[in-house]
From TrEMBL:
Short name of any one Pfam family annotated for the protein: Peptidase_M20
UniProt protein name: Allantoate amidohydrolase
Transmembrane parts of this sequence: none
Keyword Cytoplasm assigned: no
Lineage, highest ranks first: Bacteria, Pseudomonadati, Pseudomonadota, Gammaproteobacteria, Enterobacterales
Superkingdom field: Bacteria
Hydrolase listed as a keyword: yes
Species for this entry: Klebsiella pneumoniae
The family this protein is said to belong to: Belongs to the peptidase M20 family.
Keywords in alphabetical order: Hydrolase
SUPFAM superfamilies recorded: Bacterial exopeptidase dimerisation domain (SSF55031), Zn-dependent exopeptidases (SSF53187)
Amino acid sequence: MSALNTIHCFGDAQHSGTVPRDLRHDAVCGVSDLIMRLDARWQSRLSAGDDLVVTSGIFQTDVQEHAVTRISGHVSFSLEARSLNSYTLTAFAEEIMATAHQVSEARGVTFRFDSPVLTEPATLDHSVFAALKHSCEALAVNHLELASGAGHDSAIFARQGIPSGMVFVRNQNGSHNPHEAMEMDDFLLGVGVIQQTLEEWK
């Protein structure tokens, strides 16, 4: 399950050379403070054994107003949280709101949350999963069973009642990375697992 928010932080836009630190209401500092506090809360939840990932993939000042010598009065950013546990996600959403209030009080900024985009998790087909696992074992392919926190087309198929499963191929530098480094031998192992599964599928 995932929750994606677009959040706006508003402060006071001022010239950087005329406003001392204690009189600033800097939106960039406000957002940075919020993200770092949430990062600490995320670590606390991981230490407690919770399943959770938190990402801020977009962070931008107002292109109509920002300048090298200007204290930012408006920052918009994305904040996405994902978890296999809906309770964890709901609890962390409450922590986000409480932390935003703390930062507002400390830095004299305000936060506005747009309506969140919620995505429910999809359960893939157990028979497909079992068949893929059997193929890995039959081909002596080392494998790891895992739940994916990412969004995939297979989730769309699964929600429509189409039996679905996934095979992931290891990648040295991860996905969505310009330096992805999948070995072709690993790719061919994945293809072999899918081929074996299709040939034996009944």
